[in-house]
Amino acid sequence: MFLDRDGTLIQEREYLSRPEQVVLLPGAGRALRGLRRAGFKLFIVSNQSGVGRGLFTLEDVARVHARLTEALAAEKARLERIYVAPEAPGAPSRGRKPLPQFLFDARDEFQLNLSQSYFIGDKLSDLQCGWNAGVKKSILVRTGYGREVEQRDGAQLAAAVVVEDLAAAADWILQTEAAEKSLAAR
Q1: 45, 53, 105, 161 from 99: Cα distances, Å
Q2: H or E stretch including 138?
Q3: Domains contained in the chain, number
Q4: In Å, how far from its chain's centre is CA 42?
Q5: pLDDT (0 to 100) of residue 64
Q6: Phi, then psi, of 121 in degrees rounded to 5
Q7: Cα(59)–Cα(70) distance, rounded to whole angstroms?
Q8: What pLDDT, on the 0 to 100 scale, is given for residue 170?
């Protein structure tokens, strides 16, 4: 299970660089707990172009992620790994979304089947990253920039699922997985 960070898991803040700015979106902790209970490993894949633009440092990003990890632990939720692409748009990058390299890295390190994985995000580049890696489904949440993306890029979303927020995405995934298991058992 791959997740965007800003606008998907935590409140969108332009160039978030301070730990005290980290605020989990409502229902995010519950959603991640439910996905982990269902057997999903959870990964964040995040473009952090503020580093490449000189607005903050990788150390600032690490402090933000330490705070995020604490906030999730308080909700009894946990991530396997956080992948960060610090490059500015247009700069050479091995993992800046929509490039799927971090999903391939996670696949190789954690023995994942990407065709049974999902990508949840609030931007078209999140969905494209999932599609480029061959995930089962890319899911757009309407939090963060998601509503804008839905209105502006609606024609490009035919292959995506669009839901209100991370909690709704988790519910959709768990219901879909349960229905598939039920059909396979017949």
Answers
A1: 11, 19, 12, 20
A2: strand 137-141
A3: 1
A4: 9
A5: 98
A6: -160, 175
A7: 17
A8: 98
| Contact by Cβ (8 Å): 44, 64 | no
Whichever domain contains 119, its CATH number is: 3.40.50.1000
Q: CA 180 → CA 21, 38, 159, 169, distances in Å?
A: 39, 14, 19, 16
Active-site choice (4, 122, 126, 165): 4
pLDDT in tens, 70-114: 999 999 999 999 999 999 999 999 999 999 999 999 999 999 999
With tokens 């660089």, the residue in question is 17
What phi and psi values does residue 86 have, to the nearest 5 degrees?
A: -85, 0
Whether 144 contacts 28, CB under 8 Å: no
Residue 143 in contact with residue 135, Cβ under 8 Å? no
Domain around 120: 2-185
Annotated active-site residue 6? The verdict is yes
Distance CA 76, CA 95 (A): 29
pLDDT tens digits along 154-182: 999 999 999 999 999 999 999 999 999 88
pLDDT tens-place string over residues 102-127? 999 999 999 999 999 999 999 999 99
Residue of 6, 60, 122, 126 marked catalytic: 6
Would you state the structure tokens that stand for residue 2, as one six-digit string? 């791959």
C-alpha distances (whole Å) from 6 to each of 46, 79, 122, 159 are: 8, 15, 8, 22
Instruction: Write down the residue that tokens 């599609």 correspond to.
Output: 131
Backbone angles phi, psi at 94, to 5 degrees: -90, -15
